[in-house]
């Protein structure tokens, strides 16, 4: 497991008794947990366990049928998506959501949209007002993110022309451009080869340890989960069945049955984490 960044006791995020139904189907049932500021918190579980549904409740795409979400001590259960971004919640998606025709630089600039202070008129009077200076300042911060994620060589390329691994990195850059306090990563390693996974794991750790971002991550690669998570929660059929340190959670017999299956072979494989 990664060396922990300083973790404060007060939770940055709390879910209290969150349930979510779609018609007669229960996606989540009374899920409660808290994420402390400064940690990497991973949610794991079988396909259809409710992981993305939980993240969608946190980001505001879904509104819980019951229960609530608190962020920084403030209830945000009914706060719209855009306002949550302004409060400091950023996210990436399981399926890439980039603008393929736009350059990498412009895709990342979109992530800073809510930080722009000037309204329509100063924008029209771009060269006379302060909008030009503001854009220069934003571009400077975006360039810092581009350098950090090592995508300088594709900064002017259309996002749609990049390899899958680079597009995942650009989407992470756009989420980082929000300057979030909490970043939600939905399967950031999906579809990547080993080298790309190691790079992504390194970037996530640096965001946590050097940039001070709290991370909530959904991930299927147990090697990565074991290597970089401070704590792990397991969902199964929309219910929380375990939570704690990665080693303890993956040793839980309920987790082995639900997530790993009964086969000893699978359990042995997951006892050998990949080093990021």
TrEMBL record:
<dbReference type="Pfam" id="PF12399">
    <property type="entry name" value="BCA_ABC_TP_C"/>
</dbReference>
<keyword id="KW-0547">Nucleotide-binding</keyword>
<dbReference type="InterPro" id="IPR027417">
    <property type="entry name" value="P-loop_NTPase"/>
</dbReference>
<dbReference type="GO" id="GO:0005524">
    <property type="term" value="F:ATP binding"/>
</dbReference>
<keyword id="KW-0813">Transport</keyword>
<protein>
    <submittedName>
        <fullName>ABC transporter ATP-binding protein</fullName>
    </submittedName>
</protein>
<keyword id="KW-0067">ATP-binding</keyword>
<feature type="domain" description="ABC transporter">
    <location>
        <begin position="13"/>
        <end position="262"/>
    </location>
</feature>
<dbReference type="InterPro" id="IPR051120">
    <property type="entry name" value="ABC_AA/LPS_Transport"/>
</dbReference>
<dbReference type="InterPro" id="IPR003439">
    <property type="entry name" value="ABC_transporter-like_ATP-bd"/>
</dbReference>
<dbReference type="InterPro" id="IPR032823">
    <property type="entry name" value="BCA_ABC_TP_C"/>
</dbReference>
<dbReference type="InterPro" id="IPR003593">
    <property type="entry name" value="AAA+_ATPase"/>
</dbReference>
<dbReference type="Pfam" id="PF00005">
    <property type="entry name" value="ABC_tran"/>
</dbReference>
């Amino acid at each position: 497991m990664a060396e922990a960044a300083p973790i404060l006791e007060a939770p940055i995020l709390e879910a209290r008794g969150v349930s979510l139904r779609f018609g007669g189907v229960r996606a989540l049932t009374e899920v409660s947990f808290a994420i402390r500021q400064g940690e990497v918190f991973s949610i794991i579980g079988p396909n259809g366990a409710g992981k993305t549904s939980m993240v969608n409740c946190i980001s505001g795409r879904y509104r819980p049928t019951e229960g609530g979400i608190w962020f920084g001590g403030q209830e945000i259960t009914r706060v719209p998506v855009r306002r949550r971004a302004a409060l400091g919640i950023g996210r990436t998606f399981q399926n890439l959501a980039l603008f393929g025709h736009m350059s990498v630089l412009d895709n990342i600039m979109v992530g800073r949209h809510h930080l722009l202070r000037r309204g329509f008129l100063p924008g029209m009077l771009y060269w006379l007002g302060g909008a030009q200076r503001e854009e220069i300042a934003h571009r400077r911060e975006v360039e810092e993110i581009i350098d950090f994620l090592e995508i300088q060589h594709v900064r002017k390329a259309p996002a749609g022309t990049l390899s899958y691994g680079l597009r995942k990195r650009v989407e992470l850059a756009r989420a980082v451009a929000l300057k979030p306090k909490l970043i939600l990563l939905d399967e950031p390693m999906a579809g990547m080869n080993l080298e790309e996974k190691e790079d992504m794991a390194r970037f996530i750790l640096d965001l946590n340890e050097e940039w001070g971002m709290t991370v909530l991550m959904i991930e299927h690669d147990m090697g990565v989960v074991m290597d970089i998570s401070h704590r792990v929660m397991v969902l199964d059929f929309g219910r929380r069945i375990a939570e704690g340190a990665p080693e303890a959670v993956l040793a839980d017999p309920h987790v082995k049955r639900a997530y790993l299956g009964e086969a000893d072979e699978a359990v042995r494989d997951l006892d050998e984490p990949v080093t990021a």
